[in-house]
Design goal:
3 domains; six-stranded mixed barrel; alpha+beta; Phage tail protein beta-alpha-beta fold; three-stranded antiparallel β-sheet; globular; Jelly Rolls
Length: 401
C-alpha cells in the first residue's frame, strides 16, 4: 500500500484518530522515507494553512460534499466520543483531495520562501492542454540513416555492419557484431520523450527527455566507451576480458570535459546544457570522476554525488536519491527546488517553451507528482500553491507574480 490515495486515507485516519496500530506503523515508516513526506504530514496538521487551501479548493471547482459522502462509506472505524475532531470543512477538503486523486498534486506541492505580494489564489486560465512525454527516440546508424522509434515497433528494425538492432516492449536491443570493425550509432531522445537502450554487452541506459548517447555497436576488450549529453541512468554489466582473467573491462562515459570510469555499477548523470552543474550520482558500485584538469579523479561511493562546476568537482556524501531517480520512476520530485529549475524539467518532459512575462520568480517548491498526468493537471497544483501560469499553444506563460 504505497500509492498516494492509500497513504492519504491513512493520513485522514491519523488526523481523525481512527487509525489502527498497524496502519500507524506503516504511515510512520512512509514518513521516515523522506523529508518531503514528513513535511506533508506536518502541513496537514497546520489548521490555518489547510483552511487557506480550502478556499482555493472551493474556487478550483472541487466537490467536497460528494467526497465527504464517499469518505464516510470508506472509513468505517467508529469515532471515540472523547476525540477532538477537525473542523468539518477542513476535513472535507482533505477528503476531497484524497478521493478525487488530487492528493499527489494539491497536498504534495508547497511553495517555500517569502512572497513579495499578498498571498492569493491564482486565477490564470488554462487555454488548452499538453500530453505528457512518451517512449520515443531517433536512432542514427553509422551511414547516417535515421530511424524514428516508438513503442509501436517490434522485432528487427535495422542492421548495421554485422550488428542486428531490434526493439521489444522495453526498448532498443543490440545483438551480433563479432567483427573487428568499430562502428558507432547514436540514440537521441527528443524533448517529450524517454527511452531504454540495451547495449551489446548487456548494459542498460535509460535516456531522459532531451538526451543522447553515442556508442559503438560492439565493444572490444580494451574498453567500453560512450559519449552522452542530457540525463541518463546506467546499469553497467560486468564483463571480464577473457575466461582466464578476472580483470574486468572498464566502462567509460564522456560528458563534456568529464570522464566517468566504472566497473559494474548503477549511476545517474545529469548534464543538460541549460543546467549550470553536471551531477553524477552513484547508487551501486564505484566510479571514478576525472576532468582534463584532474586526471586522477575522485572516487564516488554509493549514495554520494559528484557535482562539477567550472571544471571543479566536489563530492557530496548524502545525495537525495529519491530526487535523482524520480524521473526514471515516473515522478516529479522537488526538494526545496527553485521554480525555474522545476519549470526546466516541465519544459523538457512536455516539450514546451517557458516564457516569463516578468522577473523569474525566486521562490522554491517541495513535493512530488506523477509524470503521467497532462500538463493542465500538473499546473493545477502550481495554481493551488498560488503560482500564476497559463498554457498558450506550445508555451507555458508565467506572468508577473
Amino acid at each position: 500500500m504505497d500509492d498516494i490515495p492509500a497513504i492519504g486515507s491513512l493520513i485522514l485516519k491519523y488526523i481523525n484518530q481512527t487509525i489502527t496500530e498497524e496502519e500507524q506503523q506503516f504511515l510512520e515508516a512512509w514518513a521516515a522515507k523522506s523529508d518531503v513526506h514528513k513535511r506533508r504530514i506536518r502541513q496537514l496538521m497546520d489548521i490555518d494553512e489547510v483552511n487557506e487551501k480550502v478556499v482555493s479548493w472551493d474556487k478550483a471547482g472541487g466537490d467536497p460534499e460528494l467526497a465527504w459522502a464517499k469518505l464516510q462509506e470508506q472509513l468505517s472505524a467508529p469515532q471515540k466520543a472523547s476525540v477532538r475532531k477537525l473542523d468539518v470543512k477542513i476535513f472535507r477538503y482533505i477528503a476531497a483531495a484524497v478521493l478525487l486523486g488530487a492528493f499527489a498534486t494539491i497536498v504534495f506541492i508547497e511553495v517555500g520562501g517569502k512572497r513579495t505580494a499578498t498571498k492569493k489564489a491564482a486565477t490564470e486560465t488554462v487555454l488548452n492542454d499538453v500530453a505528457p512525454g512518451s517512449s520515443k527516440a531517433v536512432l542514427t546508424l553509422s551511414n547516417g540513416k535515421r530511424i524514428y522509434l516508438d513503442n509501436g515497433q517490434k522485432g528487427v528494425i535495422a542492421s548495421d555492419g554485422s550488428v542486428v538492432v531490434s526493439q521489444d516492449e522495453q526498448g532498443l536491443i543490440y545483438s551480433g557484431g563479432e567483427g573487428d570493425e568499430v562502428i558507432y550509432n547514436t540514440l537521441t531522445v527528443p524533448k517529450g520523450g524517454q527511452y531504454l537502450l540495451v547495449l551489446k554487452d548487456g548494459t542498460k541506459a535509460w535516456l531522459n527527455s532531451g538526451s543522447s548517447i553515442r556508442y559503438p555497436t560492439a565493444f572490444d576488450s580494451d574498453g567500453r566507451n560512450v559519449e552522452i549529453s542530457g540525463e541518463i541512468y546506467f546499469e553497467v554489466a560486468q564483463i571480464v576480458k577473457n575466461s582466464q582473467s578476472k580483470a574486468k573491462i572498464p566502462f567509460n562515459v564522456k560528458v563534456r570535459d568529464l570522464k566517468v570510469q566504472v566497473l559494474g555499477t548503477h549511476f545517474n548523470i545529469n548534464a543538460y546544457d541549460d543546467e549550470t552543474d553536471i551531477k553524477i550520482t552513484l547508487l551501486e558500485g564505484k566510479v571514478n570522476v576525472s576532468t582534463s584538469v584532474n586526471s586522477d579523479g575522485k572516487i564516488l561511493k554509493p549514495g554520494e554525488q559528484a557535482i562539477s562546476k567550472m571544471g571543479q568537482v566536489a563530492i557530496y556524501k548524502e545525495a537525495d536519491l529519491e530526487e535523482v531517480m524520480a524521473w526514471k520512476n515516473g515522478k516529479f520530485y522537488f526538494n526545496n527546488t527553485p521554480l525555474s529549475a522545476v519549470l526546466r524539467q516541465v519544459a523538457r518532459w512536455y516539450n514546451i517553451e517557458i516564457v516569463y512575462e516578468g522577473a523569474v520568480p525566486s521562490f522554491k517548491l517541495n513535493g512530488e507528482a506523477s509524470r503521467s498526468m497532462p500538463l493542465a493537471e500538473l499546473l493545477k497544483s502550481l495554481q493551488m500553491s498560488d503560482i500564476k501560469c497559463r498554457i498558450e499553444g506550445n508555451r507555458l506563460i508565467i506572468p508577473e507574480q
